[in-house]
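User: I'm putting together notes for a lab meeting next week and I want to include a structural view of one of the chains we've been expressing. I don't have a solved structure, so I'd like a prediction I can at least talk through. The sequence is below, exactly as it appears in our construct file.
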Amino acid sequence: MEWLLADIRANTIGFRFEGQWAITVRAGRLRPEAVLFYADFLNDVIGLVPDFVWRY
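Assistant: Thanks for the context. Below is the predicted structure for the 56-residue chain, given as structure tokens.
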């Protein structure tokens, strides 16, 4: 939670978990060169979720 409050990306990029999927949401057309930026962000978010959360 502390990271989410401190990271500027978490304050500007919409994201959610849908079952086993992590999804980022944005308005407008996605440029191919931006894909890795959003993928890196989701990877950071997933990496910070405690292991016990994934057990349920």
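A couple of points you could mention at the meeting. The first strand starts at residue 14 and ends at 18. The first helix runs from residue 2 to 6.

User: Perfect, that's what I needed.
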